[in-house]
Specification:
Length: about 375
């Protein structure tokens, strides 16, 4: 079998050893005579997997005791509504910082959810330029872009805008905004677990699994316990974060196979040396690719400002759309897939998540060099 060099944005490449382990255990999980999918979520065989997955998240990120680690469903998109439902009390408002399409969506859902519940959500700053279909996002926000309310329920931002290739804090020049005492709530769907972070800086972190740590169907949430405890109780129980927190994410049937795959992926990540080693590997991949773009600046152009260039989703343009189409086709012929930019922005997007092998990036860089030379 020849494995594709998969640069998909999500669902995305998974590490071969994690898939191989699933294959080995598929029909007979730990000698039980059945697949992990066929086990009760209340049984001890599954529970061991569930606990290990939570423990791996805690260990890899050194999650402090004051935080819960939850596995939820509905995708990051459901959390766009569920977070404001929980964390914005009646009469209060949450601040949103928008640096791309996902932040825009999060704000729109927060407005709807809070309006139903006698609360609010407002745009506290954006780096978007232009309107409608021509709206561009080329950088993370800085203090100058923001009008934060000191009494906001929280400040929400998207650490990595998957479509626009704009990421916070890849250089010290573009840190996460300082929200003072107001909790930071961050959608880390497309840059979760690519490097170590200090969890204590955040009130809540959430991430859909299908970008960097597993298959679709699971959202990982890391949340301060006091925020969970203070969360609203006048919303359906199934949406309250405390329901998952009080029941170790086993209130109802969780996506057991997805959580099992997360266990496999995180065990692989730990085996490679954990997040510090992964950060080095990811930064080297991104540096190589951006170097090819910059060395061929008359042919390739990255629209994102240097300080905000994403390490996870690297976007660039070629001279014409016809060139881009040809490029995607040539890449495909060489076993490289998933390079077409998001339909809303066009261009090329290279998603270089943890599971994307450095050798795939080398192959892509070589193709890019040759393609630019031939013109
Ligand atoms: C993919 C993505 C989402 C949406 O995730 P779903 O699981 O499909 O709801 C939200 N935010 C970011 C940053 C993403 O990359």
């Amino acid at each position: 079998m020849s494995r594709a060099k998969n640069f998909n944005a999500g669902p995305a490449a998974l590490p071969l050893p994690a898939l191989q382990r699933a294959l080995d255990e598929f029909l007979d999980f730990s000698g039980s005579g059945m697949s992990v999918m066929e086990h009760s979520h209340r049984g001890k065989d599954y529970e061991a997997v569930h606990d290990e997955a939570i423990a791996l998240v805690r260990e890899l990120l050194s999650v402090p005791d004051a935080y819960d680690v939850l596995f939820l469903q509905g995708g990051a998109s459901q959390l766009f509504a569920q977070i404001p439902m929980n964390l914005v009390e009646r009469g209060r408002s949450a601040d949103y910082v928008v640096t791309g399409a996902w932040g825009d969506k999060a704000l729109a859902e927060a407005k709807t959810a809070t309006a139903m519940l006698g609360a609010g959500a407002r745009l506290a700053g954006t780096t978007g330029e232009g309107e409608g279909k021509d709206k561009r996002f080329v950088r993370a926000a800085t203090a100058k872009d923001l009008r934060l309310a000191p009494d906001a329920a929280y400040v929400h931002l998207t650490s990595n805008e998957t479509i626009h290739g704009v990421e916070y804090e890849v250089t010290p020049a573009r840190p996460f905004p300082d929200a003072g005492k107001v909790p930071l709530v961050v959608d880390m769907s497309s840059d979760f677990l690519w490097r170590p972070i200090d969890v204590s800086r955040f009130g809540l972190i959430y991430a859909g699994a299908q970008k960097n740590i597993g298959p679709s169907g699971v959202v990982v949430v890391i949340v301060r316990k006091d925020l969970v405890a203070a969360g609203r109780k006048d919303i359906p129980k199934i949406f309250q974060l405390r329901t998952a927190a009080d029941n170790k994410s086993l209130y109802n049937t969780p996506p057991t196979f997805g959580i099992y795959m997360i266990r496999n992926v995180l065990a692989w990540l730990k085996g490679l040396g954990g997040l510090a080693a992964m950060e080095q590997r990811n930064r080297e991949k991104a540096a190589k690719l951006y170097a090819v773009i910059d060395a061929n600046a008359s042919f390739y152009r990255c629209p994102v400002e240097r300080e905000s260039r994403s390490v996870m989703n690297l976007v660039f343009r070629l001279p014409t759309e016809a060139d881009e189409e040809r490029f995607v086709k040539e890449a495909k012929a060489q076993g490289m897939v998933g390079l077409k930019g998001h339909r809303s922005v066009g261009g090329i997007r290279v998603s270089a998540y943890n599971a994307v092998e450095p050798a795939w990036i080398d192959a892509l860089c070589e193709l890019m060099q040759g393609f630019a030379r031939r013109g």
